[in-house]
Structure formats: structure tokens, C-alpha cells
Amino acid sequence: MPTPTHTHPSTTTPASTANRFTFKDWEEHPVGPEGVFPRLARATVTNAFTGVLTAPATTCTYTVAYAGESTGTFTGMELVTGSVDGREGVFVLEEHGTFDATGTHCRFTVVPGSGTGGLAGLAGSGSFAHRYGDTSVEYAFDHAFDGGGTAAADQSA
Q1: Each residue's pLDDT expressed in tens, for the chain with a length of 157 residues
Q2: Is 27 exposed, middle or buried (0-12, 13-18, 19+ CB in 10 A)?
Q3: CA geometry: angle at 99 spanning 96 and 103, to 5°?
Q4: Under a CB-based contact definition with an 8 Å cutoff, are residues 129 and 102 in contact?
Q5: Alpha carbon distance 11, 137 (integer Å)
Q6: Ramachandran region of residue 35, left (φ > 0), alpha (ψ -120 to 50) or beta?
Q7: Which among 144, 142, 148 is positioned nearest to 126, based on CA atoms?
Q8: pTM score > 0.85 for this model?
């Protein structure tokens, strides 16, 4: 996938700070011959999140399917070490998205049972949209903990 860029719905923390993340690293390796389509690639990415989800450096691995030079789909898993609403721990996000010449659209879900520490019982989903050229991406994240209601919700779409 070309160097990522995302923009998406606003979700605010109680302090009215937008939920955002930045790409700290992007390393892509082709799988099979380059220059032909469709083709596959693997990418590893480091992201930094602020807002309701705070994590200084996540670890993410994508499989990218290019339909053309700048179009395709991707799936990935992101290991998040940080906090959600001030509760600390580790969890995994499963991600699915598409991209084209204008940007990237992604939906993600917390992998059930992956939360540890203060994030045990975390469930949730979210999304982002990124426009190429943007250096920071706004994300939406609805989440809850076992036995509780939604802890944060995205009110814009």
C-alpha cells in the first residue's frame, strides 16, 4: 500500500482532545513478483496514538493486496501497549481496509479476549479515513469493558 495517510470521524475524549494517531514507521516488502497486478506485499508499521486510546508505539503487520498501482485492500493485526480511558494493558486490533489514489479507509475490532491488565475484558471497534498527505489521522473508537456499557462513542461519521 502506498505510504499511508488517513482522516476520519472525530471522537473526542472528555477533555475534548481529538483522538489521533501518526505513522512512525512504514516498511513494506513485496511477496512475489513486483510490477504485476494483482500482487501482494507485507508491511510493518509503528503507530503512536493519543486521545481515548494512548499508546506511544504500537506494532502492526499488514498483508496488502494491490489490484493496481494505487488501489487495493489490506488486513492486519496491531499489538497495542498503552491505555484506554486511563486503564493500562495490552490488546490486539484486527484491521480491514481499502485504499485508492485519494486515501485509505479502515475498520478495526478489538480481538476478543486479547486484553490484559487493566484492559482485560475490553471490547470495541472503530474506524479511520486517511487522505494522502495528512501526517496525523483522526480515529473513532467505541469500546466497553465486560459488564459495562459503551465507554466512549464516536458521535460523528
Answers
A1: 433 323 233 333 333 358 999 988 889 999 988 889 999 999 999 999 999 999 999 999 999 999 999 999 999 999 999 999 999 999 999 999 999 999 999 999 999 999 999 999 999 999 999 998 888 999 999 999 986 544 544 433 3
A2: exposed
A3: 120
A4: no
A5: 12
A6: left
A7: 142
A8: no
- Taking a C-beta distance cutoff of 8 angstroms, is the pair 152, 52 a contact? yes
Residue 125: phi and psi, rounded to 5, are: -155, 165
Pairing of strands 122-131, 103-110: antiparallel
**Cell numbers given for 110:** 478489538
Cell of 39: 500482487
Rg, the chain, Cα only: 16
- Closest to 153 in 3D by CA, of 7, 21, 19: 19
| Cα(69)–Cα(79) distance, integer angstroms | 28
* Residue type (1 letter), 110: V
Q: Which helix (H) or strand (E) holds 106?
A: strand 103-110
Among left, alpha and beta (phi > 0; psi -120 to 50; other), residue 32 is left
